[in-house]
Amino acid sequence: xxxxxxxxxxxxxxxxxxxxxxxxxxxxxxxxxxxxxxxxxxxxxxxxxxxxxxxxxxxxxxxxxxxxxxxxxxxxxxxxxxxxxxxxxxxxxxxxxxxxxxxxxxxxxxxxxxxxxxxxxxxxxxxxxxxxxxxxxxxxxxxxxxxxxxxxxxxxxxxxxxxxxxxxxxxxxxxxxxxxxxxxxxxxxxxxxxxxxxxxxxxxxxxxxxxxxxxxxxxxxxxxxxxxxxxxxxxxxxxxxxxxxxxxxxxxxxxxxxxxxxxxxxxxxxxxxxxxxxxxxxxxxxxxxxxxxxxxxxxxxxxxxxxxxxxxxxxxxxxxxxxxxxxxxxxxxxxxxxxxxxxxxxxxxxxxxxxxxxxxxxxxxxxxxxxxxxxxxxxxxxxxxxxxxxxxxxxxxxxxxxxxxxxxxxxxxxxxxxxxxxxxxxxxxxxxxxxxxxxxxxxxxxxxxxxxxxxxxxxxxxxxxxxxxxxxxxxxxxxxx
Length: 481
Fold this sequence. Notes:
Elements: H1 3-14, E1 18-22, E2 28-29, H2 33-39, H3 49-52, H4 55-71, E3 75-81, E4 84-93, E5 96-103, H5 105-128, E6 130-136, E7 141-144, H6 146-152, H7 165-169, H8 175-188, E8 192-199, E9 205-217, E10 220-229, H9 231-260, H10 262-281, H11 286-316, E11 325-328, H12 329-346, E12 350-354, E13 359-362, H13 364-381, E14 385-393, E15 396-403, H14 437-447, E16 453-457, E17 461-469
Parallel strand pairs: 12-14
Antiparallel strand pairs: 1-2, 1-5, 3-4, 4-5, 6-7, 6-10, 8-9, 9-10, 11-13, 14-15, 15-17, 16-17
Helix pairs in contact: 9-11, 10-11, 11-14, 12-13, 13-14
């Protein structure tokens, strides 16, 4: 055997591939020992392919051998043999066909995994509207995923790899932001992100969140990033903001109308009360007097509801102003108590007021409204006792209104302060009014820099309170005689 033949045998044995030759009838010759091991026999030289393969594979190879030797052309194809996949290479060599068989089972499995991964990534990109891109800094080339082309509405076959479509499509107003983010990325190596608008080839505007970072791949420095279409989200946010602005404008206009009509609405109610008072004091029989008193009570309830509606409207449009000054809270409380005594007597309620002489800094008119609303609420829901009092807490004075009614359950402790809320635990007698009193008190408390507090024990009673800043009164200096 010559040196060249030995070298060839060495290379054949070194290679993982299988080599042998056949004539046009599939008669095997020049097969090394490794080829025999592959087919699982001692020596395949002198045998036919039909002896080693199943009928279908043998017939298929017979056709390929005839093609290669008759046409003097090479051929390659894949076959499954013994549950594994092989790539066959056939080349004409004088009057024989030279075989090279490569085991590609693992390659096929890996290729299948990669294809599945690629399909999943493309599906994820389409579902989330996220496109991926890379920019090779040295070669000045850009890679785009399929979703990037879809986002931009561009046919990939029409775009050069060196053309920067991103910069071309970003709106002129947003381009400086995009450039500054990428420049900062190159300087600091930190992630860049932001929101830009793109003009697609069809002319429509797309809102995109972009993210970018530095990636090193096989020693090559690249900028890699994503673009995500958030146009539906932006459009929804804009629609919600517009709807909110329109609702607020309509509510403001309604409140302005009610606030401006306050005097015109209150004046006929005041006149009605005067007419009813004159009617009650007149010469009426018992039945007429009862009807007049019921009409007067209904007018009182209507006036209270109207006052609350107007107060809410003024609070919403800023019609109520806070004008703080020093005043004696004890004097104010006693005056309110004296006016409320008759109402308490009519309802057979024990009413007590405990208010010491204290100077506070606040708006007396707003504080009076708060106390009157809290007392009205207490008279409505108490069993038979209401207390108006005050207590010092450091440099503040707490004003309290207590009753021994059914109280407030924990589930309603916050709900009762909402506008128009009326507890389902109250009977029909207690459901007069519009459920605005406590809401008004809380809003006024916030206006004067205080906070409305509730302490309640179900079936035993409630205490509503708020605090006011105390004014320290310095004692007068004694003059020398």
